[in-house]
Amino acid sequence: MKMIKRALNIVAALFLMAGFAYSQSINDARKAIEIEQYEKAKAILSMLAQNPATAAESHYYMGDVYLKTVEPDSAKVFFDKGVAANPQFALNYVGQGKLDILNKNFDSAKPLFDKAIALGQKEKDYRPYLETARAYVLAGEGGDAAALETAIGYIEQAKKIASKNAEVYTALGDAYLLKKDANNAIANYNKALDLDKNYLRAYVQQSLIYRGAQSYESSLAPLEKAISIDPNYGPAYRELAMLYYSSGQYAKAVDVYKNKYLALTDASCNSNTRYASILYLAKQYQAAYDEINLLMKTCQVKPVMYRLLAYSAYEIKKPKEALSAMNTFFTKQAESNLINTDYEYMAKILSDNKMDSLAISYLQKAIDKDPSRTDLYPMLGKMSYLSKQYPAAIKAYEGYFAKTEVKKQPVDYLYYGLAALYSDKYQKADSAFAKVIELSPTYIQGYSYRALANYKMDEGNKLGLAKPYYEKVIELGEVDKQKNMKVLLDAYRYMGDYSYSVLKDVAASKAYFNKVLELVPNDPQALDVLKALNSPGAKNK
């Protein structure tokens, strides 16, 4: 009985599997692929592959899934299986050609496309033309203008066979969109919707055009239309999240992407990569850092992810991790593809790792790449100062101050003044510290440094140039003597010396050196001076 029961269970299971296979179709799998439910698509295609009548076609779309999830080796396995299952089925030759296009082997791809189209013509099937066009679009996405023209030619051939097919017109719109021909793109998306009001992908692509034109309301309307037709259409939420981001609604962008788009679609390397990018762009640096690290454990990430990992690590104060990621990014990314911000972040990261001399060279590259980035000059000046390259610091700050449209900060004049001070350019230093005081009247260090610059200009301390600034240091510093001890000690010593040497006021001099002892009871210099001032030979004026 047990054997019979087990056999009946197996038969029942087979009937269920068969029922699933017959209840699902290639179109169901294609729909699942479109809405990025890849695991569902795989399940449908795996069942359909068991039926010889649909095996070759299911292998093609399974390969297509793996292409979309950036797994070309797996895609090749299925395209090859598809050819083996039915050499007369056209699309798997297109799939093999797509892989050649991705590897820039155009000469190898062309005979495969030609074979597919010849087989398709027997069946009056538009798909070999359309899928061949999509192969060339892959090259067009990398900037190959000739490939885009080739793609458009193939889609026009598909139109001759399927002139009432919304998918064909949407694909043509996609090609024109990549070509940056918005008028032809929108015309074809509109034609697709004239043919099928429920062809959701055309609405999403319309939105892309309007977003590119920075028309928020026009971009929002087609997405809302798509969602009203199908509230579970994931790609619409993806583009809604991007629209929110582009309009500065960062919290909404993250929320929609995470809780709508990702919830409705299967996690993939592409979708999670985009999510990590949105998190970074929304300045959620810790979340971006965590997401990218997870991605790197499961996906073969593009170089840009190392860029965002480095940027995020810098922002959350992880300088060592930032430097490691940035070094990896620079080794993986061609120099021609580096952007100004890469050099800027590398400079900041190196500086955080106490490598200012090397940081300067990267910051200079950023400035050379985009001279309009006047905001980088103060950073260059500070790094040059910290590396004790004082003339370079002076040059950077003076270039920055020459930009009249930029609002200067006290710290900019502070580092400029210090670089001038240590270059023995005391007049420049004095002028710089004067600006520090003007912009920040209660900043005690500004008065202390200006006093030092004037002391250096006043040989022998005969003119008392530093006196008013040290007096201001004492006025501000005595509010909190412990906090301001260092600058107060300098001020007391100067005033003590000035009182005795210039004013000949022994009592005043004693008072200042006694103030030194209040802060540092065993200060040897103060003890020696007071001993001399208290000797019989000392005279008051």
> How far apart lie the N and C ends?
126 Å
Spans of at least 5 consecutive residues whose pLDDT stays below 50 are 1-22
Main β sheet profile = none
N-to-C order of helices and strands: HHHHHHHHHHHHHHHHHHHHHHHHHHHHHH
Number of strands: 0
Helix/strand class: mainly alpha
Determine the mean pLDDT.
91
So how many helices?
30
**Percent of residues in beta strands:** under 5%
Radius of gyration: 36 Å
Pfam family, one: TPR_8
Keywords: Signal, TPR repeat
Protein name: Tetratricopeptide repeat protein
Organism: Solitalea agri
Tell me briefly what this model is.
This protein is mainly α. Helix content is 76%, strand content 0%.
Would you kindly provide a written description of the structure presented here, covering whatever features stand out?
Helix 20 packs antiparallel against helix 21 and helix 29 (506-519) runs antiparallel to helix 30. The N and C termini lie far apart (126 Å). It contains 30 helices and no strands. Mean pLDDT is 91; it is low at 1-22. The protein has 541 residues and is mainly α.
List keywords for this structure.
single chain; 541 residues; mainly alpha; 76% helix; TPR-like_helical_dom_sf
Architecture blueprint of SSEs:
Elements: H1 2-23, H2 26-34, H3 38-48, H4 55-68, H5 72-85, H6 91-102, H7 106-123, H8 127-141, H9 145-161, H10 166-178, H11 182-195, H12 200-212, H13 216-229, H14 234-246, H15 250-264, H16 269-281, H17 285-298, H18 303-315, H19 319-332, H20 340-352, H21 356-369, H22 376-386, H23 390-401, H24 410-421, H25 426-439, H26 444-457, H27 467-477, H28 485-501, H29 506-519, H30 524-533
Helix pairs in contact: 2-3, 2-4, 3-4, 4-5, 5-6, 6-7, 6-8, 7-8, 8-9, 8-10, 9-10, 10-11, 10-12, 11-12, 12-13, 12-14, 13-14, 14-15, 15-16, 16-17, 16-18, 17-18, 18-19, 18-20, 19-20, 20-21, 21-22, 22-23, 22-24, 23-24, 24-25, 25-26, 26-27, 27-28, 28-29, 29-30
